[in-house]
């Protein structure tokens, strides 16, 4: 081990620069510095700031993957600079030895690698992502509010979130519409909903089932795949949806109707009846105004049959229906058991 | 007539050296994108593979049933997989979402003996049992892993060398990697390799591993079309001759909804979108008419 020399290499960091007060548009600056194997991207950026260009701006506090402040896109993927090894990134460079460093997406850019986190904070408020205790104020301090371990297990992973906003930067729908609730917010909502101390469950859910809420997630799994804490964010989103379906009043949304149509079709036909899905999700009016020209083309190209859309059930559907029904009995029993 | 031929093929034990798979019939391919299975039917023998169609399988739940009713989700897909197991074959699908959905059900079943017992208690009335012996795989994986790139290269009759092709993977063949785990979830290569083996030139573009927006088309249409338009725009800007995708759902958005998406984004161009199965068919010498490419909404050269 003693004769093992530290590996050194000249590496270029191509940093996206932008100061809206001075620059008309963003541009890249290249900084080539000697880097030792084992160094993180954040330490390289610190070196650049100290020795090459003090005007490069980025956020970084704990430097240990705890605070979530150094989220940025490194070679195109959102992650923490402080837990990303330069050497690991070398394999991913489009141009050899050139590492691209850019700010997170889907948030307003303040300067260089610094983005405005206020939209995230505002959405946390909009969806009431905190606990308002079920214990009356007068009783507080008299006794502990204990949580069973099994309950905590349900949202243990969700509490690992450090609000770095990498998931928001990667989100397909947030990119398409900044009003969308966003994955980090849904994760937090799931965590609060699952907490038995929480008393504002319904208020939160009411907001979540509105437009731009939980039903707008398109299941691309980018949030989960890039989460710096490996949190299964989609499970949490599905968890919120499950609750939306259970809640009376929250069912009358296009998202809920769309989801439940799958269950109905499978039970009846063994397959999805795509042709009537738009009508069942959004009603006849919406379908006629939104999809009529396209439906016409689809029928013309024989991609969808002309109305009425007759779908032959799967072979052996009779047996299958019985099995499906039997499972429904199991589910009913489960629900009864849970109540007791 | 066609039904009868199909049944004869199903009971065929296959020629020696022929690799066989239990082919899962996806709702979308049965209803809207019929050209996918039509193409596969044409060329499967050319590649020494045979797909045995599972006519009694049911809808996988399409990335919705899992949270609407987790137990029905487990039952439905245990049944689908058990049918493949009864044939002693791996289950193969040509739809990304079916792949992810059935694989995640398998993951849950394999992790929970209680759940397995519960569904098997119901399935035994039909003479079925979920054991966990069949793998759940995608057509693209079969081409890369079993047929092999060298064989593909050798079998090409009409190399796609005149075409610049933009690969569009779709999400549910890549992510979450905890369920799929075949390709790099953020920098995939399998489809690129197939294009290369068939003689085509692949286009590098950022959107190749991004989302098409399919799953919110009916709930958040504007957002979905924005997502699709970004991918289409980049492929057009990079001068791709066509986009190819291994997923019929991505195809439905990128082809069927293309004019609407590009109109919303004020783009006055278009680009043809092919299924993986059609691209393979073209390279193996079948005509666009045979492959059913005329059924696409966006026309174009081929």
From TrEMBL, chain A:
<dbReference type="InterPro" id="IPR009051">
    <property type="entry name" value="Helical_ferredxn"/>
</dbReference>
<keyword id="KW-0479">Metal-binding</keyword>
<dbReference type="InterPro" id="IPR012675">
    <property type="entry name" value="Beta-grasp_dom_sf"/>
</dbReference>
<keyword id="KW-0001">2Fe-2S</keyword>
<feature type="domain" description="2Fe-2S ferredoxin-type">
    <location>
        <begin position="9"/>
        <end position="105"/>
    </location>
</feature>
<dbReference type="Pfam" id="PF13085">
    <property type="entry name" value="Fer2_3"/>
</dbReference>
<dbReference type="GO" id="GO:0016491">
    <property type="term" value="F:oxidoreductase activity"/>
</dbReference>
<comment type="subunit">
    <text>Part of an enzyme complex containing three subunits: a flavoprotein (frdA), an iron-sulfur protein (frdB), and diheme cytochrome b (frdC).</text>
</comment>
<dbReference type="GO" id="GO:0006099">
    <property type="term" value="P:tricarboxylic acid cycle"/>
</dbReference>
<dbReference type="GO" id="GO:0022904">
    <property type="term" value="P:respiratory electron transport chain"/>
</dbReference>
<dbReference type="InterPro" id="IPR017896">
    <property type="entry name" value="4Fe4S_Fe-S-bd"/>
</dbReference>
<dbReference type="InterPro" id="IPR025192">
    <property type="entry name" value="Succ_DH/fum_Rdtase_N"/>
</dbReference>
<protein>
    <submittedName>
        <fullName>Succinate dehydrogenase/fumarate reductase iron-sulfur subunit</fullName>
    </submittedName>
</protein>
<dbReference type="GO" id="GO:0009055">
    <property type="term" value="F:electron transfer activity"/>
</dbReference>
<keyword id="KW-0004">4Fe-4S</keyword>
<dbReference type="InterPro" id="IPR050573">
    <property type="entry name" value="SDH/FRD_Iron-Sulfur"/>
</dbReference>
<dbReference type="GO" id="GO:0051537">
    <property type="term" value="F:2 iron, 2 sulfur cluster binding"/>
</dbReference>
<dbReference type="GO" id="GO:0051539">
    <property type="term" value="F:4 iron, 4 sulfur cluster binding"/>
</dbReference>
<dbReference type="GO" id="GO:0046872">
    <property type="term" value="F:metal ion binding"/>
</dbReference>
<dbReference type="InterPro" id="IPR004489">
    <property type="entry name" value="Succ_DH/fum_Rdtase_Fe-S"/>
</dbReference>
<keyword id="KW-0408">Iron</keyword>
<keyword id="KW-0411">Iron-sulfur</keyword>
<dbReference type="InterPro" id="IPR001041">
    <property type="entry name" value="2Fe-2S_ferredoxin-type"/>
</dbReference>
<dbReference type="Pfam" id="PF13183">
    <property type="entry name" value="Fer4_8"/>
</dbReference>
<keyword id="KW-0560">Oxidoreductase</keyword>
<comment type="pathway">
    <text>Carbohydrate metabolism; tricarboxylic acid cycle; fumarate from succinate (bacterial route): step 1/1.</text>
</comment>
<dbReference type="InterPro" id="IPR036010">
    <property type="entry name" value="2Fe-2S_ferredoxin-like_sf"/>
</dbReference>
<comment type="similarity">
    <text>Belongs to the succinate dehydrogenase/fumarate reductase iron-sulfur protein family.</text>
</comment>
<dbReference type="InterPro" id="IPR006058">
    <property type="entry name" value="2Fe2S_fd_BS"/>
</dbReference>
């Amino acid at each position: 081990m003693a004769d093992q020399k530290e590996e050194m290499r000249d590496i270029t960091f191509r940093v996206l620069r932008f100061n809206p007060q001075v620059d008309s548009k963003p541009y890249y600056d290249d900084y080539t510095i000697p880097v030792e194997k084992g160094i993180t991207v954040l330490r390289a950026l610190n070196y650049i700031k100290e020795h090459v260009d003090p005007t490069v701006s980025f956020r970084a506090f704990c430097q240990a993957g705890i605070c979530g402040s150094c989220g940025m896109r490194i070679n195109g993927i959102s992650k923490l600079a402080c837990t990303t090894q330069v050497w690991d990134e070398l394999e991913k460079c489009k141009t050899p030895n050139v590492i691209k460093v850019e700010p997170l997406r889907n948030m307003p850019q303040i300067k260089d690698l610094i983005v405005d986190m206020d939209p995230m904070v505002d959405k946390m408020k909009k969806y009431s992502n905190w606990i308002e205790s079920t214990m009356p104020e007068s009783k507080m301090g008299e006794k502990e509010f204990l949580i069973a371990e099994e309950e905590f297990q349900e949202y243990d992973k969700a509490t690992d979130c450090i609000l770095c906003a990498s998931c928001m930067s990667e989100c397909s729908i947030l990119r398409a519409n900044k009003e969308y609730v966003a994955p980090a917010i849904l994760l937090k909502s799931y965590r609060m909903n699952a907490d038995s101390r929480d008393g504002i469950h319904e208020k939160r859910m009411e907001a979540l089932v509105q437009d731009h809420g939980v039903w707008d997630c398109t299941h691309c799994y980018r949030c989960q795949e890039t989460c710096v804490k490996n949190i299964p964010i989609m499970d949490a989103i599905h968890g919120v949806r499950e609750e939306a379906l259970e809640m009376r009043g929250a069912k009358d949304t296009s998202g809920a109707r769309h989801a439940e149509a799958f269950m109905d079709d499978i039970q009846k036909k063994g397959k999805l009846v795509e042709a009537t899905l738009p009508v069942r999700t959004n009603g006849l009016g919406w379908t006629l105004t939104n999809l009529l020209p396209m439906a016409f083309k689809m029928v013309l190209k024989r991609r969808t049959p002309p109305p009425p859309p007759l779908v032959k059930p799967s072979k052996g559907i009779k047996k299958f229906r019985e099995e499906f029904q039997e499972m429904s009995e199991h589910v009913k029993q489960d629900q009864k058991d849970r109540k007791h | 007539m066609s039904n009868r031929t199909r049944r004869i093929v199903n009971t065929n034990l296959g020629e020696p050296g022929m690799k066989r798979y239990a082919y899962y019939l996806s709702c979308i391919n049965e209803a809207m994108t019929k050209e996918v299975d039509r193409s596969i039917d044409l060329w499967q023998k050319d590649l020494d593979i045979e797909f045995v169609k599972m006519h009694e399988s049911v809808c996988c739940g399409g990335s919705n049933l899992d949270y609407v009713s987790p137990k029905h989700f487990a039952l439905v897909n245990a049944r689908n997989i058990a049918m493949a197991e009864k044939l002693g074959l791996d289950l193969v699908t040509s739809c990304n979402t079916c792949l992810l959905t059935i694989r995640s059900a398998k993951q849950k079943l394999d992790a929970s003996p209680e759940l397995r017992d519960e569904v098997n208690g119901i399935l035994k009335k039909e003479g079925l049992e979920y054991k966990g012996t069949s793998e759940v795989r995608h057509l693209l994986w079969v081409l890369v892993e079993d047929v092999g790139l060298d064989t593909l290269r050798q079998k090409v009759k009409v190399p796609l060398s005149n075409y610049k092709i933009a690969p569009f993977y779709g999400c549910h063949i890549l992510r979450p990697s905890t369920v799929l785990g075949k390709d790099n979830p953020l920098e995939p290569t399998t489809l690129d390799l197939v294009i290369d083996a068939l003689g085509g030139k692949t286009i590098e573009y950022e959107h190749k591993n991004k989302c098409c927006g399919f799953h919110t088309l009916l709930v958040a249409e504007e957002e979905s079309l924005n997502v699709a338009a970004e991918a289409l725009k980049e492929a057009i800007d990079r001068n791709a001759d066509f986009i190819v995708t291994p997923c019929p759902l991505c195809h439905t958005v990128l082809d069927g909804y293309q004019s609407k998406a590009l109109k919303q984004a004020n783009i006055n161009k278009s680009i043809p979108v092919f299924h993986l199965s059609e691209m393979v068919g073209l390279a193996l010498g079948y005509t666009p008419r045979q492959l059913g490419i005329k059924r696409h909404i966006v026309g174009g050269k081929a």
